[in-house]
Structure formats: C-alpha cells, structure tokens
Automatic annotation (TrEMBL):
Superkingdom of origin organism: Eukaryota
Native source species: Tricholomella constricta
GO terms under biological process: mitochondrial respiratory chain complex I assembly
InterPro entries reported for this sequence: NDUFAF8
GO cellular component, one term: mitochondrion
Protein name from the UniProt record: Uncharacterized protein
Length: 64
C-alpha cells in the first residue's frame, strides 16, 4: 500500500479531497488559490470561475 493510499484510507472525504488536491493537482490548485487570495477583500460570485473550473476538472478525473 502506498503512503498516499494508506493516508487516505482512514480519512474523511474532505481530508481525502484536500490531500489529493495538493498532491495531484498542485499547479491548478495554486492558480485557483492565487485568484482567491488576490480578491479576498472584494469577494463576488464567480470571481474565480475559470480557475475553479480547471481545478475542479482535474479533481473529478483524479478522485471521481
């Protein structure tokens, strides 16, 4: 059993998501995080929609 598989087998779905998003999709997660950080003082609906869509696409493929 790999370390990643062992770590995720005993965790909640949210923790699994967090682990996968940082270990398998770090580039897209970083782009999305930077977008959120850049506008966190002026949050509005869909402000990082494109970045999230790309990040979410990767997550669906890797986890789903």
């Amino acid at each position: 059993m790999t370390a990643l598989k062992a770590a995720t087998s005993q965790q909640t779905p949210l923790k699994k998501f967090a682990l996968h998003s940082t270990s398998t999709c770090s580039a897209r997660a970083s782009v999305y995080g930077k977008c959120i950080l850049a506008g966190y003082t002026d949050v509005r609906k869909d402000m990082c929609k494109e970045e999230f869509a790309q990040f979410d696409e990767t997550e669906v493929v890797k986890i789903g």
